[in-house]
Design a protein that fits this description.
about 400 residues; alpha/beta; Rossmann fold; formyl-coa transferase, domain 3; 2 domains; seven-stranded mixed sheet; about 40% helix; elongated; Crotonobetainyl-CoA:carnitine CoA-transferase CaiB; CoA-Trfase_III_dom3_sf; CoA-transferase activity
Length: about 400
């Protein structure tokens, strides 16, 4: 397929076509990462309401919800009704031509539509087909909804998040969706390598619950090794001291003295050699055992100066330290420091739009960093995609007239 509307950075996935039948966060995040790597991603949406996140506002920019804008750059929007015979035929044809298909329908829906793995593979043997679900294909009951909040609770993530004497707390972002999107993208890339080499496709399954549990890493292993539930450590670390938030004279900072050498450097900056010499604190196990006393001593010193001064002094000494920032402050600070975390694109209704880049960089894409198409309007590319799929202008016009397709005008 080709598209004269598309201006996306070239990359290692040039020539790869992705049929994105997913919605909300995990699937769209995965396909956005593939688009960032150069893939052509066609986002299939309902012509009436589109992706659920289009309505998840305010805030909005140019009428588009910020939530939707966060995970849909670099894509084309095909808005068709799969309950219409022509709309369903278009999506089936798209899947037959795609290198990758990503879907997160409720269990059984894709199969009923003739869009399940078996049906797509019959026409497209080399397809990499990714199914994303909340609780996995074998989970009982099969119809259980898999929203991030539910999975944070069911995975134990909430149980280990929050203050030790407080209630369990969720992470401030839908982190199980984000982990699932990352896992999906990694698995798809691995399957693509084999598909290109052998011509054999792959059915990739990714779940929020699996992603959340694997994302617990050391805490999950701790539970398996000890047979006990890990506790909550709040803004501290259960196994390292000092490794937590500390108040200063004006705002909070985080100090991460992860080994004995860093701890001694911290004591030197604090001008407290006695804390370094105290045998109770000489090693990390001792510091963990005497956490309360040591944290109180460090806190009393840190309250004497402001966060900016302490951050400068600790950084100069090589002690890991950071300010506790708000999101906007963090983005602006990272950009100002040269981390290049944002990109700007021209959106048809929002105008110049700032977006947050993916967490990776490819040297080969450095010159194309700004060449990304904005998150599309609902149905912005319907007519062009349908034409590429073999539909005539008359057929496309009829679909639009009866509401089976939608063509947005930028």
């Amino acid at each position: 397929m080709t598209d004269t509307d598309r201006t996306a950075p070239s990359g290692p996935l040039d020539g790869i076509l992705v049929a994105d039948l997913s919605r909300v966060l995990a699937g769209p995040y995965a396909t956005m990462l593939l688009a960032d790597l150069g893939a052509e991603v066609v986002k299939v949406e309902h012509p009436g309401h589109g992706d659920d996140t289009r309505s998840w506002g305010p805030p909005r920019a140019g009428g588009e919800a910020a939530y939707y804008l966060a995970v849909n750059r670099g894509k084309r929007s095909l808005a068709v009704d799969v309950k219409d015979p022509d709309g369903l035929a278009a999506v089936r044809e798209l899947c037959a031509r795609a290198d990758v298909v990503v879907q997160n329908f409720r269990p059984g829906v894709a199969e009923r539509l003739g869009l399940g793995y078996a049906a797509v593979r019959e026409r497209n043997p080399a397809v990499v087909y990714c199914s994303i679900s909340g609780f996995g294909p074998g989970h009982v009951p099969a119809q259980r909804p898999g929203f991030d909040l539910i999975v944070q609770a069911e995975s134990g993530l909430m149980a280990v998040t929050g203050e030790p004497d407080g209630a369990p707390a969720k992470v401030g972002v839908a982190v199980t969706d984000v982990l699932t999107g990352l896992n999906a993208a990694v698995a798809i890339l691995g399957a693509l390598v084999r598909a290109r080499a052998s011509g054999r496709g792959e059915h990739v399954t990714v779940s929020l619950i699996g992603s959340a549990l694997s994302g617990l890493v050391n805490l999950a292993q701790q539970a398996l090794v000890t047979g006990r539930e890990p506790g909550r450590a709040g803004n501290a670390h259960g196994a390292i001291v000092p490794y937590q938030v500390f108040p200063t004279a004006d705002s909070d900072i985080v100090i991460a003295a992860g080994n004995d050498t860093l701890y001694r450097r911290l004591c030197a900056v604090l001008e407290r050699p006695d804390l370094a010499a105290d045998p109770r604190y000489a090693t990390n196990p001792g510091r963990v055992e005497h956490r309360g006393e040591l944290v109180a001593e460090i806190t009393s010193v840190l309250r004497g100066r402001g966060a900016e001064e302490w951050t400068r002094l600790l950084m100069e000494a090589g002690v890991p330290v950071g300010r506790v920032r708000g999101v906007l402050d963090a983005i602006r600070t990272a950009d100002a420091a040269g981390d290049d975390v944002t990109m700007t694109t021209d959106h048809p209704t929002a105008g110049r739009l700032d977006l947050v880049r993916a967490g990776f960089r490819l040297e080969s894409q450095a010159d194309d960093a700004g060449a990304v198409s904005p998150p599309p309007l609902l149905g912005q590319h319907s007519a062009s995609v349908l034409a590429e799929l073999g539909f005539t202008a008359e057929q496309i016009g009829g679909m639009i007239d009866r509401g089976a397709a939608r063509q947005a005008t930028p």
